[in-house]
Every structure is written in structure tokens, then in C-alpha cells.
Design a protein that fits this description.
Elements (H helix, E strand, L loop, with lengths): L4 H35 L8 H5 L9 H4 L4 E3 L2 E3 L1 H9 L3 H11 L5 H8 L3 H22 L7
Length: 146
Amino acid sequence: MEPNSREFYKQCAFQKFCNTVLHNEACDAHRELHRHKAREVTFSDLPLDEARQLHTFDEYFKRETAETVFEKAGKKITPKLLLEAIRTLPEEKRKAVLLYYFEGMNDTEIAELFNTSRSTIQYRRTSSFELLRKYLEENADEWDEW
């Protein structure tokens, strides 16, 4: 069956329209590239005062050198001292504290991980505070040189 002339005319008109749109878009993209190229300057061609404005200094690691110190009852507690205090805990208590406070797990999730009850994990975690407090009270003054 042969298409009628009216349908053929519509197809040709639509094809011409599509070709015109694509041609105009290509011309616009070409002009845009030339505009960018005309304004583009290499770093080596920039004046020194303009080149200096294009950088920034990273202040992130400067904060690491100034260690945060907490003071409680006249004793200074540093992160290094706290780390050492956590290391002195028995392994099961240390794991419970680390998973709860540093990994964001709740007591139920930790209990499932160790195949024990939730109350056991809660006891390990809360009883660790007394051990940590004692260690920090005894050793806070010795760690000032850190």
C-alpha cells in the first residue's frame, strides 16, 4: 500500500524541521565554544596577583595539632589519655563501648553479634564507665606531657 501524498508531505516537513533544529543547535554550540575560547586564559599567562587569588590554604590539619583537652575536677583529659583508658578495659567491655559509641550500634545489635543477651551488653557498657573514671582520675596528671 502506497502512502498518500498528504502523509508524505507531513513526514518531509517534520524531517526538515528536525534537521533545522539540529543545525541551529550545532551552530549555537560552535559559537559558545568560540566565546569561551576567546575569554580563556592559561595559568601561565595570568598576572601574578591574579594567579595568587586562585588558591586556598587547607586549614584542616592545623586543627589536629591543637589537641582538644577536657578539664574535669582540675584534671586534664586528652584524647590520647582517653584512648589509653579504653585500651585498659577488658576485651568484652572494650568492644561493647566501641561498638555502641563509635560504631553507632545499639545494645540489641551488639548482643546479636556476640550471641548474648541485651542486658549483658548493657551491663558491660555501663560498668565500663566506673573503670574508665578510675583510670582517668589516677592517670590524668601523668599524661600532661603528651
